Write the structure tokens for this entry.
Amino acid sequence: MGSRATIGLVLVLRSLLAMVLAAVAFCVANLAGSELAMLAGFPGGGERRLAWDLGWVIVAGVLAAWVAAVLAPRAPRAHVLVLFAMLLAIAVFAVLRLGGDWPWWFSAGAVATLPLQAWLGARWALRAKARRAVAGAG
């Protein structure tokens, strides 16, 4: 009985770690996009900068989904689904609270691309896991 409880606890902790690291990856990618924008000479505001930022939000979401799926000890799709739900809640909250500060296309893009972000990140992670499994079996 103790070993099953220990295995269960380890799985829960690894799942939590996967989700925390996915959130960290999302934040780091967004920060990297901001730093690159400054290095590229983008001004602090305007539609060009918002388009750049939206692109990096999408990259960050794909990366976060990939991290969640790769690090998930079991059920990588479920981990990505939980991440998607969390990001959707944050995006909807941000649009409702700050949506008037952004153009409609930025708000719409931030929310509407979330399913694509989750799908791409999960797909790439699952392909990588499958390739590793085939390589390890051969």
